[in-house]
Design goal:
Largest sheet: 2 strands, antiparallel
Helix content: 40-55%
Order of helices and strands: HHEHHHHHHEHEHHEEEHHHHHEEHHH
Structural class: mainly alpha
């Protein structure tokens, strides 16, 4: 397989030894490797992971862009053609194949760090061990069975076998436990991690917390099957996680958003990758062309408007809607979206009359496009809190009574993330609350709004809501309220928190539980929401004999609902 035998893929990154001034100029010449120490590789490896997850991948795509369409956040605007796979759910071997190849390239970086740093750079090796799990998880969740035990061998094995997804998942837990143990076992006086750690700035305690929160994500994801043996395993491992995380050296869990920040700057190849793709090129006064390709869906806009949710003003620009037959020469400012797959999605010109309907776009300077210098998210605190709340509500972790507090804290954390500016580092929820940081007042208004006091999607204790589901043809409030389960309200708020910046996790929840019930594409025909991606053409060409047979985009991955 092409991506797995790019030997020493990151070894040319010699610039990392003196800082991160060229941190996005990766894979400069993989054919002329140079001996580089793990500390010189780490920053570039982490920045590449961030770009693969949310941002631009050269000549390809990234996980959250792909997932934002599939999970119902994004639609295609009327200014561009294409996006047929997103609209029809008809995939092939070339659709998003760069995710597979780019992730394996990045995994080679971490393999080098872990292998070469085991004795000389033990802290760096432990970080690499954690990040290998993070990246392999992305691959398994989108492709199912993948090369794992025989992967990353370079020219030693260019046609690795495919391991079962469920077996890989179990090894993820082993690896994360091992990484925490590795950190706790680092000999005194060992080389410390410094500025090359562009995630936690050398705090190994926070790396342990991240490993534990990642472990919780992994266990939750496989907790919704009808497999009794798997359910028993998950329950046992969650109990072990709860015990271990609470010990003095256990590491606890993340207490703020986990972000990559190599000091992005407004220079070529050094901008925040999402901003670089959908915002402005360095020195440009007009937005990138792809900025005009995307319109939020009507479904996601309705979820904010139905719940008096101030987050919408930080996410999207207002467009305008023509007033219709009664007043055709005027338009009213509004958030205007699209139904994915509709025949005539909105464009962005008001016409000569200034009265034509104009679609909404990402707010420049808002949450998604804060600035060229803004950090990139790897894991949201809100996701972790909602993960914990769901497990508590299902009596799989901690106390069921704690679910309400974690649910409310998850919402609060999302508001703080949404309203945070580009230069403010993520803060703990306690410090954000005591300092009354932006987002706190908006959160308080949200949960106390009259419309939300009896809204079961916002108030944990309220049993019903009048907000219709995406599968309901009705878009106005229901006359007869519908019942909302604890799991549904938790996953609903988690879905709102993960809009665009962590859409990959929202898509995985949709495939795991079917919640929330979003509006699917109008052009899908009889196709259901795809469960995975095809194996890429690069694998078909070089490793055909090992690829699992009969796999399509509708083939279930072991942890998904039927």
């Amino acid at each position: 397989m092409k991506a797995l035998f790019k030997v020493l893929i990151a070894a040319a990154l010699t610039t990392a030894t003196t800082g991160c001034e060229k941190f996005l100029d990766v894979n400069e010449n993989p054919n002329t490797p140079t001996s580089v120490t793990p500390d010189a590789l780490l920053a570039n490896a982490l920045v590449t992971t961030a770009a693969n997850y949310t941002g631009g991948v050269a000549n390809g795509n990234n996980y959250n862009t792909y997932a934002s369409f599939a999970a119902g956040y994004w639609g295609k605007s009327g200014t561009v053609s294409g996006f047929s796979p997103e609209r029809t759910y008809v995939y092939n071997n070339t659709y998003n194949q760069t995710l597979f190849n780019a992730t394996y390239d990045n995994l080679n970086d971490y393999e080098l760090i872990q292998r070469n740093g085991a004795t000389t750079h033990p802290n760096h090796a432990a970080i690499a061990r954690i990040m290998k799990v993070y990246n392999y998880l992305l691959l398994v969740d989108q492709f199912g069975d993948i090369p794992y035990t025989q992967a990353l061998k370079g020219l030693g094995n260019t046609t690795p076998k495919y391991d079962k997804a469920e077996d890989i998942y179990k090894d993820f837990v082993v690896q994360l436990k091992g990484a925490v143990d590795d950190i706790n076992s680092v000999p005194a006086g060992s080389l410390a991690v410094g500025v090359e750690d562009v995630v936690f700035n050398g705090s190994m305690t926070r790396w342990k917390a991240f490993a534990n929160s990642l472990r919780m994500r992994i266990l939750l994801r496989q907790s919704s099957t009808n497999n009794a043996a798997l359910n028993s395993y998950v329950k046992t491992e969650l109990a072990a996680l709860q015990t271990q995380a609470a010990t003095p050296t256990g590491g606890g869990f993340i207490d703020r958003d986990v972000v990559v920040q190599p000091t992005y700057t407004a220079n070529t190849n050094q901008q925040n990758p999402f901003y670089d793709r959908y915002g402005f090129a360095p020195g440009a006064t007009r937005a990138q062309s792809e900025y005009n390709f995307i319109v939020p869906t009507n479904y996601i806009i309705r979820q904010y408007e139905s719940n008096a949710d101030a987050r919408i003003a930080q996410l999207y620009r207002r467009g305008q809607r023509n007033n219709g037959a009664a007043d055709p020469t005027h338009a009213t400012p509004a958030y205007v979206g699209t139904d994915l797959g509709e025949g005539t999605p909105p464009q962005f010109s008001a016409g000569d009359c200034g009265c034509q309907t104009v679609g909404s776009r990402f707010l420049q300077g808002g949450t998604f496009l804060r600035a060229a210098t803004a950090p990139t998210v790897l894991m949201l605190l809100s996701e972790h809190l909602f993960n914990k709340a769901e497990l508590e509500a299902r009596a799989l972790f901690g106390a069921s009574a704690d679910a309400k507090q974690d649910f409310n804290d998850g919402i609060k954390s999302s508001f703080v993330t949404t309203f945070r500016d580009a230069t403010t580092a993520p803060a703990t929820l306690a410090s954000a609350t005591s300092a009354n940081l932006p987002g706190i007042a908006q959160y308080n208004s949200y949960i106390t709004a009259t419309v939300n006091l009896t809204n079961g999607l916002v108030n944990y204790d309220a049993p019903t809501t009048t907000v219709p589901e995406g599968t309901d043809p009705q878009t106005t409030p229901l006359t007869t309220p519908r019942v909302v389960t604890a799991q549904e309200k938790i996953l609903y708020q988690k879905y709102l928190a993960e809009n665009t910046i962590a859409a990959t996790e929202a898509l995985d929840d949709l495939r795991r539980t079917g919640l929330p019930r979003i509006k699917l594409s109008l052009q899908r025909g009889a196709n259901p929401l795809p469960k995975r991606l095809f194996y890429p053409q690069s694998e078909v060409s070089t490793n055909q004999a090992n690829i699992p047979a009969g796999v399509t985009q509708f083939t279930k991955i072991f942890w998904q609902m039927d």
